[in-house]
Design goal:
By secondary structure, the protein is α/β, with parallel strands linked by helices. It contains 12 helices and 10 strands. Helices cover 47% and strands 16% of the residues. Helix 10 packs antiparallel against helix 11. 38% of the residues are buried.
Length: 279
C-alpha cells in the first residue's frame, strides 16, 4: 500500500452511511458473499463503504481455500452508484483522485483474486454500480434490472476504471455507444450487449444465482484458483508468458493426490446423451 493510502482511508471514512458486509455463511463450500447495504439510498456507495469494500477484498486475499465470491445488494437492488451526499462534499480534483485511486486499486485487486467473482445486478444499477459489476468475472442480471452508465448525464466520466473494463469486456465500439448514450439496459439488453451472462427472476434471485454458481464450484479449490490465475495471465500478459505460466501450474496438478483419485475413479469416462455429457 502506498504511503498516501492511509491518508485516503482517513478521508473516505468520514463519509459514513451504509455498510459493505462480508458473509462467511457459505465458506464451507468455498463461496464468500459481499453485501452492499445502504438503506434509503438504493445501496449508493459512501466513502465508508469504499473503505469497507477494500477490507473485504483484503480478507479474501488471505483466504487460501476460497473458490468464489458473490457481490450483491440488500433490499432489492445492487448499487445505484456513488452516494450523492459524498459527491457534493468532495468536489475537488484532489478528492476525485483520492477516490479514483482507492477504488481502482480495490476493484483491480478484486478482479485479480485467485477465485472467480460474480455480481448479481438487480434493480437500479447505475454509475459506480456498473463499474463495480464490471470488475467481476461474471454478471447475473435479475429481470427488473435497470443498468446504465449514467456518468455523462452527471457531467463526469467513469471514476473507477469502468471504461477500461467495459472495453475489455465488450469491445471499444459497443462500449463507446453505451457511454455516449447513457442508455438504460434491461436484463435482455445486458445479455445482448455482452455484459450479463445469465438472467434470473426477481423472486428468489439470490437462490437462483447460487444455483448458477454451484455448477462452477464443483472442482477442488486448487483447480479453480489455478484456472482463474491462468485466465488473468492470458488476458494481461504476452502469449509466451501465459503459456509458460499455464505449464508451470499444470505440472503442480499432474500426479497430485486429486489427480490420482480422479484416475482411480475413471472419471474421464462419461456417457453421452443427446449431445450433453453426463457423469
Amino acid at each position: 500500500m502506498s504511503e498516501n493510502f492511509a491518508e485516503i482511508e482517513k478521508y473516505l471514512s468520514q463519509f459514513g452511511s451504509g455498510d459493505v458486509i462480508l458473509s462467511n455463511k457459505y465458506f464451507d463450500k468455498g463461496l464468500a458473499v459481499i453485501y452492499f447495504n445502504n438503506p434509503g439510498k438504493k445501496n449508493a456507495i459512501s466513502g465508508k463503504m469504499m473503505v469497507q469494500l477494500r477490507q473485504c477484498v483484503q480478507k479474501l486475499e488471505e483466504w487460501k481455500e476460497g473458490k468464489a465470491v458473490l457481490l450483491c445488494g440488500l433490499g432489492g437492488n445492487f448499487c445505484s452508484g456513488g452516494d450523492l451526499e459524498f459527491a457534493k462534499a468532495s468536489g475537488t480534483q484532489k478528492e476525485a483522485l483520492y477516490m479514483s485511486n482507492w477504488m481502482q486499486d480495490t476493484l483491480t485487486r478484486l478482479q485479480k483474486l485467485p477465485m472467480f467473482s460474480v455480481c448479481l445486478i438487480q434493480g437500479p444499477t447505475l454509475g459506480g454500480g456498473t463499474e463495480v459489476s464490471l470488475f467481476c468475472d461474471f454478471i447475473i442480471a435479475t429481470e427488473d434490472v435497470k443498468y446504465s452508465f449514467i456518468h455523462g448525464k452527471m457531467g463526469i466520466i467513469t471514476a473507477w476504471g469502468g471504461t477500461t473494463r467495459l472495453v475489455e469486456k465488450i469491445g471499444g465500439k459497443k462500449a463507446l455507444n453505451l457511454l455516449l448514450t447513457s442508455q438504460i439496459l434491461n436484463a435482455q439488453g445486458c445479455v445482448e450487449n455482452g455484459i450479463a451472462d445469465h438472467v434470473v427472476p426477481v423472486e428468489d434471485c439470490l437462490a437462483k444465482a447460487m444455483e448458477w454458481i454451484d455448477l462452477r464450484l464443483q472442482h477442488h479449490h486448487q483447480i479453480i484458483r489455478s484456472f482463474k490465475n491462468c485466465v488473468n495471465k492470458a488476458v494481461r500478459d504476452t502469449w509466451e508468458n501465459s503459456l509458460a505460466y499455464e505449464k508451470s501450474l499444470f505440472s503442480l496438478t499432474w500426479g497430485s493426490e486429486m489427480n490420482k483419485e480422479a484416475l482411480a475413479k475413471n472419471i474421464k469416462h462419461i456417457k453421452m446423451n443427446n449431445g450433453n455429457a453426463k457423469m
